[in-house]
Amino acid sequence: MEFCDTFIREKHIKYIVDVGNEKDTLAAIATEHLRMSGAYWGLCALEILNAGEEMNKEELVSWVLKCQNEDGGFGGNIDHDSNLVYTLSALQILAICDKMETIDADRVAVFIKGLYQPDGSFITDKYGELDMRFIYCAVQSMALLKRLDELDGDQIAKYICSCQNIDGGFGSIPGSESHSGMVFCATGALAILNKVDCCDTEKLAAWLDYRQVDSGGLNGRPEKQCDLCYSWWSLSSMMILKHVSINKEGLVDFIMHCQDPRGGMSDRPMDERDLYHTYFGIAGLIMLGYCDAHQIPSTHIDPAFALPVPVLERMGLPILRY
What we know:
Helices cover 48% and strands 1% of the residues.
């Protein structure tokens, strides 16, 4: 496979649109349970590439609303059980499309608050799975609903900080291994709650510094391979902390090598492309200033909300500048 040494914006846009239009392919059927998050990845990727008009937003919003269940939450697809991950993805889509008024915010908030645990954590659904991801999803969802003050921010922050390890990173629950995905969820939730300083930011920044490997890419934990998605999970956490001391040029080079010449990006060079890595690779390049430096049409993305900055400005929500 040939290497693309320039950002192939138009091919990425075409790939994202084509994936969104797939309905009966094997890949579409195999991933129908997470279509809500896939729709968010695709829509947000197009928006930050200034190509949001390529998505049929009216059709998308109509489908999202059909995924809402009687309990107020959203599932990954129509008639799928509600959970916090897909509820956040649904709200992010509605926020981007400026259609938050189409839902009963109180009803969604009741669903979210019903999953809160006394120690400050959240389970994702009625089956009880618990980890840091669901805290982030709950906190951002309530912020988008303008109901953040209905959560006990102090208790939530206390629980999040209890998941910070001696190495500075965060695990999924207290005592579990530090991981960049959980670090993002922890720092993102704390940023939205305006409580980042309640954790040990110095140790966390040091842990993040060690995520870059020789290829220029970032990994999620020590002694692991780099993966393009950490160009978001790790880099956005650095942005939230306002501490980015990695080799930016090396990371840009790694991201460029993950491009498929047909459009789309993969986890590592020469691997198969997918929508998830395409979105986070594009977001990483934008946060690194690549698109601005090369005059590529794009829009900044907020590192805590993972939403285009103009969306947050329109909604009157706080923005992390970089």
